[in-house]
């Protein structure tokens, strides 16, 4: 599938299954998620720059934009499917085959091979966390995800202050 | 996930990824597919009865209705994901855990353990074939699927006349 | 209209008008309702079996799946329209004409001619009740329906314990 | 139901069932139809004025806008349901009860009591005809409707030139 | 763009951007808004008539129905775009060019040249206010709009009792 | 509006008005367009690299991803609105205020200040061209846009071979 229109439309019409399973009526698509990760990662990179940390905003945006492209081929299966596969390797294999010119960017994110990839990986989880908080505010049961993601994000010690900032802004007293 | 409302809504909001990848704008959901399989299988069973073949319409409808329930947990991933797993076994495992009272019905379909299961398995592929023909009529490129499914369906020798009937009705001169 | 694809798509694109009239943004379709009735009825039959009551799960699933098929022809009009017609007879007439091989199943449900039909008729009302509870949780005014349906369901004496179980699970303290 | 928001949203979320039954994926809602009737009727009235015929554009727009309001209560059932009822009388009864201040406008349209009502009744059928032509162009089978409506519209002798104009513009050589 | 079908469909598929910016999932379209303004304005005119004030219900309905037609050409841009243009004049220019036979109606509304236009202009703001209240009830942050519109509507001294009636009915204790 | 979730959702729920005006039923959103521009621009940059031209793929992806962010504030108005404003300057002003850390990227694209911006600007038009071709294939009248965009793209002399490649792939013999 190298038709770029079909790739984009698949991503923009694929709802993230975790939201569906929690009853969300108009669930976030994979492409909306990718855009949110990009904007979050860009803001975070800008903030890190302001704190004197050197990380390229443009690289962060690029990696975030493409990080879920393999889902145009693989779809967005449930957590149980991912856990039964070496999902990272499957994604990478698809990436190399379908988007060879972008495979290096994918690897940064997936294996957190540098600060750019680390920021995107953090933003990926954070985007899901703040979306879960938003859905919770609308009455959906996403509390399990909120807790689970907060725990994972807490392990990025050097970004702890950013986690607190975003949680405070988007989750209020919910975490 | 034993909340029946969330299970149904997940199935009715999950587009089948094969259609998305072929550019379909308003792709068939998993629950619309299940309903189509049920109606097709019911018609086929009635026709077989008329031909003197003994197959229970009610059993056929029941098996068809539940045959994709595991996708409420697993989602509807792309073909490549299914091929990398023993998808049948994964589905069965989920079925046994989440819908133990329906697991026997799933096995009939999946392993074609009797004529009921065989009819549903045939109707499952046929439902996808005639949908592919309908999408092709609207301008989408589904020709590969049409050919592929026709080949698989041709192997059900005893149902060959039904294959011809449905192809003639829904695909016109397209196969 | 004997085109099965159009029949299914009509059912899956027809919102139940009672939800629209109560302001629901993404209202349950007729086919999502049918699927929910099937899953509920299947669970109930399994529970009855466990209690020593003999009712065939497969028959229950079959009847539930087809019980609203006539709406593919009739649409899903408001309550007032149904009350001005002998709606049951209209449905049966359409059923006999369009789906003669399934008309017997419809009659079981509509006239509760046996335990299978009785369970499906109970599950039909119960599916609407628990959906009304879910919508109420999201902020929609469905209180009148909740009360009204609970009253009707209370008349199934032998299924009273099941009514309590489902109301407790899906409606919380709302009834 | 006197909540105006729910009334409007019901009309704007109710797909016209005739399109669904012909397989249309994104079927026209009742409120989109009402708007189309209003714009058509307004254009026709302006043209009649230019030809020296006296008909009030504002009255025509008003009557067209409200002509289907009763469907917020009744829904939009299939043709067979309408034929089994005295649909006109049911609509009028609902109109008088729910929108007493607009009931006079409804009567103009329904019984073509004056030229204003006659123009709206003509525009109502014409709006459905040109929509059927548009859907046919997209690949849907609406030929039966096109023929049927053209025949009905041909009976408005004094508006025959307008029928030809609109058919030529929206249906091309399809009629 | 004089294709009436495209005009209507553009209006019915254009979400009002202010709702999107406040996070509304299934935002009101321009045509749903126009229909709501028409119903509100019609009710208000009927009430004014009952109070002995002379205002033509049909004219009010007609003006309300067409008041946003120019958005089929201009789209529905954000507030900042409107403020940078003489939006009223742009709308009027488009109206004169695309809908010359309706331009007089537009002017009544836009410049409140008579009581009919004044009622529609009031109903336009009121429709947005009560919709904002409805969205707030569903959990969206529309408080700023509610306050802002209430202030503007308070300036219609002679309609103050109607403002209170509608706010009480649709906004409860929220204003 | 600095709520990133609302920004993304506004972009992903805003249909591009040009498609609506040409009758497209399920029109491309602004965020789907941005994603398509990013993938196209990334492919083009990779191809240019293969030809020995030095352009950073990551920068191209980053600029493409953010190039329409101002539309989260401004909406996506019709062509006529844009022409009446110095649209470029309005976008830049919004960008500087809302996304100061990304304003430099916007300027590259808008004023084609370097090869990165030039490639994104080319890909922006090309994404619209190939989408117009796709819609034309489905039966929508987009021929005017196809011609108009092809003319504009023809002025990028150094990218002429890429224009031919993409037109041949996505538009067939339609240009």
UniProtKB/TrEMBL annotation, chains A, B, C, D, E, F:
A Gene Ontology molecular function term of the record: metal ion binding
Keywords (A to Z) from UniProt: Hydrolase, Metal-binding
HD/PDEase domain location: 26-138
Names of required cofactors: Co(2+); Mn(2+)
Top EC class of this enzyme: hydrolase
Recorded catalytic activity of this chain's protein: a 2'-deoxyribonucleoside 5'-phosphate + H2O = a 2'-deoxyribonucleoside + phosphate
UniProt xrefs under InterPro entries: HD/PDEase_dom, HD_domain, YfbR/HDDC2
Description of how the protein assembles with itself and partners: Homodimer.
Name of the protein this chain belongs to: 5'-deoxynucleotidase
Organism this protein belongs to: Pyrobaculum oguniense (strain DSM 13380 / JCM 10595 / TE7)
